[in-house]
Amino acid sequence: MDLDDLDRALLLALLERPRAGLREHARALGIARGTAQARFLRLQERGVIVGFEPQVDPEALGYDVHAFVTLHITQGRLDAVAEHLATIPEVVEAHSITGDGDLWARVVARTNAHLEQVVQGIIGTPGVERTRTEIALTERVAHRVLPLVRALPRGRRGS
């Protein structure tokens, strides 16, 4: 997707000050609030800006164990397994992958014993041949996109 300098500036403003309103961002960028609103809506429609939910730390909810589960799936069962994973609250993310395995899931649990229960539930899913679980020790780089937006090429003017 091609973003011009104003789109990039608006994204940076939104990421750097997510609690500020569009009016504040428009003022800081030196544009009309309507322009900021139109650009924001266009970025939403194009799928650049997604979601409005607050970020919640699973640890604050008592889910202190974080693990990555690689699943090997019976051929032709990937969609069904993914649909089942979506029903397990402790599976907070899942991706189809290449390499060793077919599906990768990020899982949270209250304790190691709870993690074992969750993994056993995953293993019992029809179509799951085997799994490999790795427990995360420390998050070293949190999910982020601000550096990507800062790295976007500059120079395109508004459209």
Task: Kindly describe this structure.
- This protein has 159 residues and is α+β, with helices and mostly antiparallel strands.
- It is built from six helices and four strands, in the order αααβαββαβα.
- The chain has helices spanning 5-16, 22-29, 33-45, 78-85, 112-123, 146-150, and strands at residues 65-73, 91-96, 103-109, 128-135.
- A four-stranded antiparallel β-sheet has the order 2-3-1-4.
- A hairpin with a 6-residue loop joins strand 2 and strand 3 (103-109).
- Helix 1 (5-16) crosses helix 2 (22-29) and helix 2 (22-29) crosses helix 3.
- It is elongated.
- The two termini are 13 Å apart.
User: What's the rounded overall pLDDT mean?
Assistant: 94
Give the overall silhouette: elongated
How many extended strands?
4
Strand content: 15-25%
Biggest sheet: strand arrangement: 2-3-1-4
Quickly count the helices: 6
Main beta sheet strand tally, sense and closure: 4 strands, antiparallel
Summarize the helix and strand pattern as letters: HHHEHEEHEH
Helix content range = 25-40%
Low-pLDDT parts are: none
Question: Main traits of this protein?
Answer:
159 residues, single chain, 4 strands, four-stranded antiparallel β-sheet, elongated, alpha+beta, 19% strand
How are the SSEs placed, and which strands pair?
Elements: H1 5-16, H2 22-29, H3 33-45, E1 65-73, H4 78-85, E2 91-96, E3 103-109, H5 112-123, E4 128-135, H6 146-150
Antiparallel strand pairs: 1-3, 1-4, 2-3
